[in-house]
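#struct-help
A.M.: can someone run this one for me? Single chain, 265 residues.
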Amino acid sequence: MKEQERRIKLEEIIYTLIVQKFVESGISMVPSLASITSIEKPWPVQVKELEAVHSVDVLDMIKQHITLVLGGQGGSGYLDHSTYAQISKLRVGQVYAASIIYGYFLRRVYQRFHLEKSMKLLPSGSSETSMNETVNAEVNSNSSGNRPVDNVLRGLGAQSPMQFGGMKPTALQTYIANMDVELLQRIATVRSRESLRVLEKHTEALFGRPDVIVAPDGSMRINKDEPLKISFAGLRHLVMESVAFGSFLWDVESHVDASYAFVSN
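D.P.: on it. Structure tokens below:
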């Protein structure tokens, strides 16, 4: 009982501190799906505030992720509320949860990259130019994009760092692309049960819990799914909010662990 109470308290502390970070950043979190899908009173899109949460390198990867989620329509021309999409509520919920994990991963890997760079621990000759040459060679040798790093990030519903859309890769993208797949997988994993529960509860609060039916053969299917009519601006805001949530989750988890030591790895 005490262990269960401790977990609940830790989850409450983590979530409260995440909300506090949103408040301090001047970002209003979406309170419900009805507010973000409203046509009469559209939810205000806070692009600048949400972008300010991240470093320039990380923001480049987030923009690629958003473009992928919006089907190539992530440009500034879609920041208004006049263009709508009909999309599965379950699918939007899955993208939201995956984007939280992606934000968690990006914050974690960026801190690792920044630390190794500041301590001069990056491999010899790993200047941005030489690292880019290495990645470009790997892309040319495997145009299918079926490398382990692609598979790891595809599992997050995220843009692979190997997909540059014809643009020169950043040092961070190159660093990620050259990481060992086992290390990459570990960094892309939420470290504590408490943080994972915070992620799940927050997503369920917005999208509800899927109505799952278990068949006699053990297979599962969704009993009911609702179509959502949501503007590209609203969908973009949801994705950016979820990535910011994941980034704050990493920060808060590390901060709270310093006092309560609940993270196992």
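A.M.: thanks! Confidence is low (pLDDT under 50) at residues 125-152, 155-162.
D.P.: also worth noting: The longest helix spans residues 89-118.
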